[in-house]
Amino acid sequence: MKQEPQHLRYSSKKISSFAKPVLYFLCLLLAYSLGYLSSSTRNNNKSPDHINTVVAHVNTVINRATTELGGDHSDFGAVCGEAVPQQHIRRKILERVFKGTSPWENFPPSHVESLLRKKWIKGWGSNGAVFENLIRKVRPKTIIEVGTFLGASALHMFELTRRLGLYDTQIVCIDDFRGWPGFSDHLRMKDMKMVNGDVLLMYQFMQNVMQANATESVVYTPFSSGSALEKLCEWGVFGELIEVDAAHDFHSAWSDINRAFKLLKPGLEGGVIFGHDYFTAADNRGVRRAVNLFARAHNLTVQVDGQHWVFYISNRL
Ligand SMILES: C[S@@+](CC[C@H](N)C(=O)[O-])C[C@H]1O[C@@H](n2cnc3c(N)ncnc32)[C@H](O)[C@@H]1O
Ligand SMILES: *[C@@H]1O[C@H](CO)[C@@H](O)[C@H](O)[C@H]1NC(C)=O
Ligand SMILES: *[C@@H]1O[C@H](CO)[C@@H](O)[C@H](O)[C@H]1NC(C)=O
Question: For the whole model, what pTM was predicted?
Answer without folding.
Answer: 0.81
